[in-house]
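User: Hi! Is it possible to get a structure for several chains at once, not just one? Here's what I have:
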Amino acid sequence: MKNKILIGLLLIIGLVSCNENLLDLKNPNTLDTGNFWKTEEDAELGVNAVYNMFYKQGGFTRWLDYSFDLKSDECTNASPWLELQDWTKFKYTNYDFSEGNRLIWSTHYKAIFRANQVLAYVPAIQFSDETKKQRILGEALYLRSMYYYNLALLWGNVPIVVKPSKPTDQPFNVSQDSVFNFIAIDLLQAQQMLQEKYIGDDIGRATVGAARSLLARVYMMQHKWDKAKEQLYWLVEGNGKGYYDLVTNWEDNFKHTTENNIESVFEIQYSDVNPGGPEGDVPGQSMGFQRAQFFAPNGIGWGEGIIRRWVVDEFLKEKRTDGQYDRRLLRTAWFYEQPTYFPFDNNLVYGKTFTNGSRWSAQWDFESTNTGESGHECLIRKYQGDYYRTFETYECPINFRYIRFADVLLMYAECINNISGPADAAKYVDRVRNRSKLANLSVKYPDALSSPEKFQQRLETERTLELCGEQVRWADLMRWGYFDSKDKMAILKARDVDFKLFDDVTFKHKFFPISSLELSANKNLKQNPNY
Amino acid sequence: MKNKFYKLIIIPNDHSMKHFISFRILTLLFSFLLTALSFSASAQDVKISLNFKNKPLSEVFNTIEAKSGYSILVRSNDVNLNDVVSINVVNKSVEEVLTLLFKQSKINFEITGKSISIFIPQKNADNINNPAASKKITGLVTDEKGDPIIGASIIENTSNKGTVTDINGQFSIETSNTGQIKISYVGYENQLIDVNGKSSLKINLKQTSQFLDEIVVVGYGTQRKKDLTGAVSIVDTKVLKSKTATTIADVLQGAATGVYVRGGSQPGQGATIQIRGIKSLTNNNPLFVIDGLLTDGNNDFNPEDIESIQILKDASSAAIYGSRAANGVIVITTKKGKEGPLKVELSVKKGYQTTPRYTLAGRDEFIRLNNMAYANAGLPPQDHRPDINTDWQNEIFQTGTLDEYNASISGGGKNSTYMVSGNYFGNKGTLIGTQFDRYTFRVNTEAKKGILKVGENLSLSKAFSTELPSLNPYWEVLRMLPTIPVYDDANPGGFGYGDGYRAKTFGSNPVALKYLQNRTNNNYRMRGNVYAELELADGLKYKVNYGLDAEFYFHRYLRREGTWTYNQPATDPSELYEPSSTYFSSIIDNTISYNKKFNKHTIDALAGITYQSETFETKGALTQNLLKTPEGDYFQVLGAGTSGAQVYGNLNEAKMISYLGRINYNYDDKYLVSATVRSDGSSRFKKGERWGTFPSISVGWRPLKESFINLPGIDDLKLRANYGTLGSVNIGCYDYFALININTPAVFNNTVQGGATQVKLVNEDIKWETLVQQNYGIDLALFNNRLSLSAEYFISDSKDILYGMPIPDSSGNDGGSPVVNAANIKNNGFELTATWKDKISDFNYNIGINFTTLNNSVVSLGYGETQVKTTTTLSKIGQPMGMWYLIKTDGLFQNTNEILNYKNTNGVVIQPDAKPGDIRYVDYNHDGKITDDDRQLAGSPWAKFEAGLNLGAEWKNFDLSMNWFASIGSLVFNAPRQLTDRFDDNSNYRTGIQPWQKEGDTGFPRIVYSSTLNSLVETDRWLEDGSFVRLKNLSIGYNIPKSLISRVSINQCRLSLSGQNLLTFTKYSGLDPEFSGSLYERGMDSAGYPNVKAITFGLNITF
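Assistant: Yes, the chains can be modeled jointly so their relative placement is included. Here is the combined structure:
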């Protein structure tokens, strides 16, 4: 009988030759890390993937506008989604609110992970053209710096990750100042590797000027005025001077037909190539700017981007040399009395008639409901597509001008004023004012030239008029000390009721709380102070 | 007709020993076992001693078998095993014993090898002829259902003449006018009938309650239920007949202990089935084994084809399936043909369904409350449209219908059987636009010749189903206001929805969703296996089985132009998206089994190798801006797209090699031991981590068999214990590969350039997840087997659970957390089943109760973490999964003083912004503010226990069955109520809300538009007691008397009326307390498709 069992077993083994190699399967769908990062082409694909992060909701295409502008004193948030409103009004009940506190953080670190891969794997790749290799590494350094800069502004104390991550990594957070120092080292290196200018299909890649301008922003946050000035000098007065100027028509900075112009220092390149496309790393993904759909008036869009009235009033305080009102206001905001101040304009809102005196029109509910503003609301108009169409989509093609030369000039002026006072600084501000047909400061605001403090005060207004809604305000306020002084905070509280909840004792609200889910996943991470 | 088999096999009056015919599948399986109970010693070698006084023949046979090692085969039904005999022999050969035993009777015997066949020579029964004192009577023998019993034996008492019933259950016999006849059939109670001059008789036999002798299908074989040492639930197949079941899940609900079934009534939708709780974090679906094919149990399977269901719940019973079985195994056997002429069964069902509804405010109440909420926020009221009064529920809910047609034919000869069935099931849902249509077709055949047996089971199905739109209508119906019209020509597409100042809501028009988003699925499936079995030697069998599961799936999404919600870009183009996928799984099993009985020792051994290969391939294409027909609709083919064309495709493959073995040992039915081991190698792990070995051992003891134990009144008692290990590999095919994503392009100068990078992180060293389980059980039969009790206690430890455990976002990981051996979870529970069956004259009834408790706790988490949070729950070491973790509320502020006096220990006013009538929240961390950190444990989503009650009764031609289900003690989060009661954002409201208006008002807080003060999500305000008791099923049947239908050659005709979910007792205010949440938010009611009420009429005809 035993023999029979044996025979039976042998029979089974004979019939089924279960070779264990059958279990060796390769993924038939795509490359894995073992066979990528080998060629020049891989390197280029790899760095493009970092740029791809511009199309993610937690980055420039959607939520950064909320965190830098709507949260600031210049704007407010009228989202029907109250939790989203609370988030830009310092009311943080749920630290894990996805749109506000998790998505921006995670999107930034995703971009950093992609840049880290380029920086880790590209050096080993053989290139026929060493300049190209340097350029790719420089782009990765630049892009990584952009994201660390944002993280430092929004959360302050964040972890610095410099190598491709492993799931087991639990990095410590470091101080905001350390993050700035880290970025500075990268950007000094990047500007040695990047090109000054690109042609053809490389237009839009990071340049030396972009790296220097961003580095200047970082130094200015640290009040290292000399170092910042040195970086900006290259663009304004130095070897890079020939690449940059102000465009004649200020509005050209916010149109898709005049992108990558001489005023652009770095643009986030958007496209409407995939209308209605999905979010994420999938075929046919959306690659447009989503802000326009969110800020467009109700019925066209979500009507969420509201400009505070004091900004509009500031525009209306000064007329141009030709007696008209500052036309920058027309493209900065839609406001109630617009036809009064700009009677020559057709004053259409997405092709519909602007009705003065009552509701803007039966279709457009601009009236204040929950923004704390009395009277009529003013909507953000910058980067809206109404100049060429009567509707909005989630894929607006207009490039976002991350750094433009007007900003560089104003930053340069700020540095000089801090180093040597208003006398040398005024001409750079005038250059920006003159483009908008405004008289020189010495003519219009002679008192502003009387002291660095007064100049600073005027410069703050000039930055609002020129750059309102361009994601610079939060850094400006932080740099100017509004989040460190009870008196200065009082100014913000007066301008914007949203600051009512801003804690002017501990000033903890200058940073977001770190998500509790992130804290629970990383035991080395510390919550921001006083949360 | 269900058979309970006595130990011995019945063989019809066919003297050929080579072929014995079984009538039913269970007989067949049992016969395998019995054939195996053979012995190699020769007849002369064995001497046995017996001493019996007035014992049934069956007991004597049993003893002879046990002592001699011979198998006894009873070849005819006229041998009555209940006949009482006496014998006293010492040290005699089997032949001598039998000769002595049958000396006084008509019974003959033959010894062939190790088999003894027992029979009454046919001529003895048929040829006796004594016309002088006799007359001929005819009769029909049926079971309780009225089905004819084939092969029942009829014996005339005085003369011992006998016969058996034919395939129609008919018999005729010569008897004296005053005699008695005895009718007997194995598994049924004997009947003694006075002839009394009758010439035709109708005899109805009642089943004996020898439930412990059932044969159950376990992995790769069968076992007597009385020999089971693991936790196996056997679903009462009677339940199948009375329920209107669309899917296997419908059949299982409430039918067995430890089996959790939740799912709504969305047409064609699958349900959540969990056996003994959450053991894994990715997939808790049990393994389905249908006729030996490892598969799943989704909606393309026809429940009418089910013959039997066994649920293997613990490690030892499931161990033979190794890594596939950690979530339990549901073993399904489909119906097979039986020997006899063609039997046709037809059934028709027609049913109606209604959905539960919310009680919502009408227009006037809505406007009153909405204005109050605006006024409290200091805002002027909306410019409501007075001309509109839409009842959105009326717009989207309808009476659903069910239609089912089932036909089967079956039959067979001595050496082969067949069963063919066809089924159509159609269900129009209670929500507009929902539909399910299924066609299934099955062929099961088997044939034998000599030592070879071959067979196949094959099913084909086509299923059509609709999917819900991207936004859940059961949710959107709450968000739409009564002041919005259903249709509005001013909007693109022509549907009404919210409006900025007249009816502000971002709810979506569910009627528009139905029309503008059309999602359908067509699923074609071929599932079957072929097998061949060779009996190489007595008791030694070799079986090869090849199974194929092929599934073709076609999804279709048509997006029409138009908008369904306020602020939606009107520019989204029309779109057609058609992905299709192909799934192939092929399994080849080679098993060898050996059965041997040696005196009181029985050994049943099995060894085998199996190899499974799976491929899953998806291809899809999308086009936009579809060409329009002259009528204004779209050409609905991919070729009609004029822009935006995209294609997709990917392929996933997995393979597994397994070695398995099992030994069952039985000593005198007293001591039972079973040991199993399975070793699995999976391609889903990298080399070095691929192989997992999963052993188990179980033991059983029947104390009543011990001579020193005497427990009067107890008919059977068995104690069981086992310990085993199972594995799990519920992960993707390539989770250990770090992949490059090539869909990361970027725009430069308005030109799109390609990009590629690693997006998702991986853990390369992932290894098998294991489940270690102990199970302790007791089976008890009392009151002449009328009451049976089974109790189980189990402890299971899931270790190294494979799961995408959250990692820090600072890693930059995207596309889901990488799979890691992430957690250990412990489950323990108690299960009790009690069944009472009895008869009071012609009233048969049975009562079954099952009761389940389950506790689980997280033992450890991956990456050294201690907790996993969601917005509403916390899963923490030492706690059950997904405990509610919320800010607690503490009534309402009645006046300003109460607000100002509500301070923390440092005197900080905690809610300075509150006004009288607002909710008081508990400042759990005493920091003087209400923040995320004030969340605290707020209760458990786990039921304290679940229970089922099954009642059945039969009286004359009527039968009744009832199935109650209860789930007690869970706390659930009523998310729909959070929507209707919030008031900060516009939605429709529950009717009857009385908001706080003045001091002293209690209950409902002040209502304020656009203020989150009283609408915080993460608070315990939305928790409710989710306990419920529900009459899941009630059915009444009536068998039309044979006398009326036999003239038209119909054997049976049954009318039935059944109802589902007719009664529910609950305090829960949502639509349906019986729902399934997600893994971490188990008790979250997110307004899924609810269970509907249904009434179904049925007609069954057999001829």
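Chain A touches chain B through 116 residues (CB under 8 Å). The first strand of chain A starts at residue 75 and ends at 77.

User: Great, thank you!
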